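Good morning,

Both structures are done.
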Amino acid sequence: MNFTQQFIEDKDLVEQALKEAFRGRTPHADLYDAMNYSLLAGGKRLRPILTLETCRLCGGDPAAVLPFACAVEMIHTYSLIHDDLPCMDNDELRRGKPTNHMVYGEATAVLAGDALLTAAFELALEGRGSLDPLGVLEALQCLANAAGGAGMVGGQALDMAGEGHALTQADVEELQRLKTGALIAAAAEIGCILAGGSPEERQAVGLYAAKLGQAFQIRDDMLDVTGDEERLGKPVGSDAKGEKTTFVTLRGLEECGHLVEKLTREAVEALAGFEKPEFLQELAQVLVGRSN
């Protein structure tokens, strides 16, 4: 199976599982509608695919870790809902559709995000099945650390605090490592953990994901300047509007392009010791040239 076929198969697997996640739940006003509105709005599904494929890379069964993969995507989706709120970035468009609060109101959007965060851990535990219990605990700890104040939420706090201020490159690197990189790294490491990967394998996978996450975010910064709003599915120029310091602000577009290529090479090299790293290596290469 080539890269494209495997990517489509993985993505379809994730999409179907997400569609089933809240089927049959008792409605509470518009809560589940709002949750599904953002959860099923599409996207690359990069994070859950990383979980599936790092599990495969380390000799595990991707189907067994699908609930964890979907849990990571739920946490990512909750972060997008909250990130778009008027008290945060105040965006009106996400993935080509009105943002959650524009459709359901701010209160329901906040609650939908809260519910997705807690549902993620519920789903992960429901899907533990035949997985090693110690591995499940370690994976849950990895996910919780990446999602909270020491990870994604901490990065968002730095992002908000940095608006209107001139940040150094070190400041921006730390902000992006937490806000974007932490959950990407966790998605990759969880697949390795649940597959029973060795500490050395987890370290290699973590390095791959860290380089990938940084390259991904810098490319995002570039697209906020050069991208097409219709292809991106969200407004361009929002960083400048929010007076945010990014890699583009600090290094310029051309140097950012070189940096993305360098980080991608380093991500690819991090997996050189694995038997069949081709899918994840090609995934890194594909993300370099993405236009959305």
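Second structure follows.
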Amino acid sequence: MNKKEIAEIKKQFTPEHCTITRLCGCYVDGEKTKRTEMKEAFLSLPEEEAFKYFEIFRKTLSGTIGKNLLNLEFPLDTEMPGGTQEFLVKLKNSRLKEDVLLEAFYDRILETYEYGENYLILLVHGVYDIPGKTSDNEELFDASEEVYEYLLCAVCPVKLSKAGLSYDAESNRFGTRTRDWLVEQPVAGFLFPAFRERSTDLHSMLYYSKNPEQLQEDFAQSMFGCRLPLSAGGQKETFNAIIQETLAEECAYEVVRNIHENLQELVEERKDEPEPVTLDKAQMRRILAQSGVQQERLEELEECYEAVAGSGTGFLASNVMNTRKFEVKTPDVIIQVNPERADLVETRMIDGRRCLVIAVDDHVEVNGIAVNVKGIERA
């Protein structure tokens, strides 16, 4: 799913466009014991209560694609009888009205999800009549083309509120605040099936993790049968390793700066496209060639890519490059440069020493104090 498709589904989690038919939940304590369960017709909930649920569901579809939101494909065997995808299809088709399926779903999460504190499993069923669109992309709400039936699950920590003082209006005095258990924003969740090209895709799903570096790979594998891609941090480390091994001793500052600038240009060119910029082996080769890497080093890329990442691995540009920061780091000094002015930093040999040289204008500050640049010239 891309940004546009996710936004269309998030739009359903508002009072005006609500497509949720049923809400179910299971409260689990730190010992993995089910404390209570609930089943509600969502549209019968009080307005304030429904609004709080909307916040949780929208959050489950928030974040950056490739970091917090991961598109997962179901292997073929998961769609066979008894497979993980086939189970989700059954659960969806039941519209959350079969207790046996619900209990089996909760049990699977309890068995595989690692969380040592209390949490609430929220699961909703929804039906979205996908409106048609005119040639100029205007929605035709009275011309539904297809029905998208889905499940959305959110796993939310439940934590005790902080102790403190509060005002009691009845006694007109301040006293100890009553502590209660609060449902926090989700830390994990999923949307099944995926919503792609404004249609149902039963062969894939969208997985959410609040922390992009704690994806709970074992949970995703056991629960869905899907293999997770590298985390955002893992992609950056792997990408950097490929660059370093490919360039070896030719991994100079100027070349790395050029790679950063060329990636930045590529992201800028495609910023209006709904799909995130993905780098495969061929794309990396083009970037390196544009950055001044010699042909013999480009030929090394194939072997390095296979050895470090594997042939099927791709990298999201947003994961391997920070467009808002350009950092030069030594054991004792860190220099942060405007990414658009990375050319201000150069490498030179001065008095027999390798140095980083920074071009400066008339305005320089040290710890917030403006210093006299002309004094540098006199020195």
